[in-house]
Here is the input.
Amino acid sequence: MKRLGVLQHSEAEYLGLMEDHLEGRNIRFTYARPFAAGGGVPSVAAGDGLILLGGGPYGLVSGHILPSLAPELRLARAYLDAGLPVVGFGMGALILCVAAGGGVVEAPLRFTVDAARATEGSGLPATFPVAAYLRDAPALKPDWPVLATDGQGAPVVFAARSNAIGFLGHPGMKRGMAEDLIMEYADTPEDCPEALARLAEAQADLAGALSPLMVWLVDRCGWM
Here is the structure.
């Protein structure tokens, strides 16, 4: 049985549709909630990997900076140094990027639903929908492979290492998660009603695409 640590930054954003896929493979996961009373960031790498979730309107270099950023960077580096898998979604991908030696640049808070296109040889499905709710953007190291791009050619999935994968979005997002993020914070992206409508239209496609994505991710991270 594999066991993963999951760092959560908001009540609204969790693993979503991914939970059933992990549980169905007998992969256990434990949430750490630094934002909650009595919560904190683990100090050592443990188990079989780390998942870093998104952070709603929090940023790494702009807006409201994630309060737990420093210990999270130390934890992600501990996992990377131990050779353990690290997967980041949304803001979590930015944390992974910095922990692995890349950087982050300022970008506005945004809520998008786009079609990702896999790069040749990545092993990902040729196209798949991805919903993103985040601030700031990654500055990847030149030797890191981009595994999928959006309609404008910007990175959507990248590999900082073979088992360290960043998704500039959340492949398991539910409409309710986005609605809760919008209600939880006063700082919200522009055009939320339009983005929510696109997410509702794409929900079935997101769920369908998640099966091959999870097969790919679990294999890449050695969780089976």
User: Anything to note?
Assistant: The chain is about 30% helix and 25% strand.
